[in-house]
Amino acid sequence: MPVPTGPSPAATVAVRDATRLALQSEAGLAIVLPSPVAVGAVDFLAAARRQRVTAVLAQQAAAIGLSAEVSDGLLEVRRWARLRSLRQVRSLTEVARVLDGCGVPAIFFKGPCLAVQTTGDSSARDAGDIDVLVAPEEVAGVVEALERAGWSRQPGQPTDERSFGWHYLRWGGCELALDGRLGRVDLHWRLVPARHALPGFDVLWSRRSEVEVGGAAFATLGLADALDHSCQHAAKDRWLSLRSLVDVHRLLRETALLPPRSGAPVEEATVAVLESTLGLPPGAEGSRASPRRAASAVRVALRAQDEPIRMHRPAGVGTYRAAHYSLASDHGTTNVVRTLAVAVVPPDTFAGNSARTAPVAVARAVPRRIRRVTLRFLGRVESAAPDRRAPGSAPSP
Fold this sequence. Notes:
Blueprint: H1 9-26, H2 41-51, H3 54-59, H4 68-102, E1 107-109, H5 111-119, E2 130-133, H6 139-148, E3 152-153, H7 164-172, E4 175-180, E5 183-188, H8 201-206, E6 209-213, E7 216-220, H9 223-236, H10 242-252, H11 265-277, H12 291-306, H13 317-329, H14 333-344, H15 358-377
Helix pairs in contact: 1-2, 2-4, 4-6, 9-10, 9-11, 10-11, 11-12, 13-14
């Protein structure tokens, strides 16, 4: 496996500082420009792409005193990003059309909907996948409708809706991915894997907001729910990129419209990381996490942000991280059982397994799981699931 490479730690620090200034400028605050940092333009741009903050930096480049070379580079990246954003909006519109045809209520979150909700500009957030939430009982029908429209399930997922594996995926997971000509769709029936970390579909639907993207209206998470989810999502990824913290910062600006935070440990840890790295917007309450927990979260975040993006995880790392996040976000017995079950026997173990009863399905799946784990720990294969697609991985101009 090739050794991952990435921007220098100094460039990551410079981008972090520049993003802090960009958010202050975006909020209309007076800023004090720091002394120029001795980081090359190529290195800085690589760090900006790695942190997925080219959009906010490009928009505020002049205000925060970035060099002409860096500003020009950011603008070039943004031209490509806007093209990706247009494609993402097309995909969003097409997915909404399919779901409307099924008569299925759906909440679109992250992506252009969150960008509009926080800035009014659908391209203000670096583009990614389409994330959509539906009620759990609607998942099978929505999958069939999307497949008829040209999307296809990614390999390694149970496909028979009558099988035990499918029901296990619904119980143990929160989403499945479908690929299509307009990009990937992440179809969710819960916002996060942990059962009680965030509300279910019916509650979220009753509190939904509406945003206009590309001339059409889309249901999205209410402001408070968007903040809760953004905090959870950032923590799940170990605050790996600054983009997730930019989302939280922008949502926290709406302090007058937000109820008091719940004080959930994962949410407060994210606020602690934001406070330490990018700062808080005026009027936002600081983290209520204990000093020890806050310091631990900040250490994890800074270490993760310095890491190059790895397209494959070493064996066991992804399982450990997912379990650690899940147990931190929901200590309930049901979630503990779910987390341990999925860690031992992930849903993709049942791919291609059409058995309808648990004993038969498990009897067929366990030998496959043992073989896979053995090969991974012998170093003969890597984890099948990519850790994260390389951010900003648009075609180079």
